[in-house]
Amino acid sequence: MRDYILKRLFYSAIIAWGVFTVTFFLLRLGPTSPADKYLANISARASNVAEVVAAIEARYGVDQPLWKQYVDYVSNLVRGNWGWSLSTSMPVMELIKRHWIYSFQLVFLSFIFAATLGMLIGLYSAVKQYTKLDYIATFFSFVGISIPNFWLGIMLILIFGVQLGWFKTYYDTSLPIVSLANLKALILPVITLGTGITAGYTRYTRSSVLDNLRKEFVLTARAKGLKERQVLIKHVFRNALLPIVTIIMFDLGAIVFGGAYLTEIIFGIPGLGRISFNAIFADDYAVVVAVTLIGTILVLMTNLVTDVLYTVLDPRIKYT
Fold first, then answer.
1. Which end of the chain offers a freer environment for a tag, N or C, measured as fewer CB atoms within 10 Å?
2. Does residue 127 form part of some domain?
3. Is 47 a domain residue?
4. What is the pTM of this model?
5. In a domain, 117, yes or no
6. Which range, 119-133, 232-246, 256-270, has the best average confidence (pLDDT)?
7. Structural element, H or E, at residue 38
8. How far is residue 230 CA from its own chain's centroid?
9. Which CATH number belongs to the domain containing residue 106 in this structure?
10. For residues 125 and 118, what is the distance between their CA atoms, to the nearest angstrom?
């Protein structure tokens, strides 16, 4: 197992480097310069704008040849210097330290909400197959998968924020992170991000549990006189977890890269998704590259953790 983990870490490092390199060069090949947006942000007005832009580019090294910018960026990255954000006028590392917690709390709560609710509904739906409750769960699963996150978020804001006034229409950054008020402010974003994921987990869990209910070991467990709850939890659900964990862990990367970004923008949550969104339009290369690299590393590490979890859930699996 140790050799396998080391090998996977080595491959992950190569993949992360590849994604970083492609992102770096694609951004640098764009037609605009970050100095133009930086000049607009600071509202600088000079008699010769071209000279000011050239001075800014020289100061931050974006006037150098592309290969030289790449070498300098990699060398700084290795030393822990992730660059300077031109759009916010602060080091990228400081910017990430300020905003990562907002993304983390959204992703974590949505993940817990979706995984818990989805597996419980899926398990109950499988046990009550072809009953009214099963049909209702199946119907809402299809609805949840079909509804786009951004549309659901807007509808929730209009209904519960504007019409009923139960929630604020925007995220309040002045609230303490660990507080009931902050938890309340995250209810709508978590529902927005977690609804579609919950529906997917419900379908996967139902299918996996139904498949295991037909296995011979279930008949053997029942023949031994075990209670139905023991059969379901200890035997059926544990064996059904293997494909479910695969889907859940892979979806975690999709949550970070996709759904969470849109949800942060809709609700005004100042997480990594929102700052990277703003950085793209500001041509803030350093921020976009840093957030992309962080997301890539998270996905790769999630995949590795998934493979390791296989051996815990199923001791028959061995890695070489």
1. C
2. yes
3. no
4. 0.79
5. yes
6. 119-133
7. helix 34-41
8. 34
9. 1.10.3720.10
10. 10
Q: List, in order, residues 6 or more apart from 18 with CB less than 8 Å away.
A: none
Q: What is the pLDDT of residues 191-237, one digit of tens each?
A: 988 888 888 888 888 888 888 877 777 777 777 777 777 778 777 77
Helix (H, G, I), strand (E, B), or coil: what is residue 85? strand
* Cα–Cα distance for residue pair 204/246, rounded to 1 Å: 10
Q: Which amino acid is at 12?
A: S
Spatial separation of the C-alpha atoms in residues 132 and 164, rounded to whole Å: 32
Task: Provide the domain count of the chain.
Answer: 1
For residue 132, being part of any structural domain is answered with yes
Q: 259 falls in which pLDDT band (50, 70, 90)?
A: low
Which residues span the domain enclosing 191?
100-279
Confidence of residue 147 (pLDDT cuts 50, 70, 90): confident
| Residue listed under structure tokens 């964990």 | 245
The string over 14-51, giving b where at least 16 C-beta atoms fall within 10 Å of a residue's C-beta and e elsewhere, is eebeebbeebbeebbeeeebbbebbbeeeeeeeeeeee
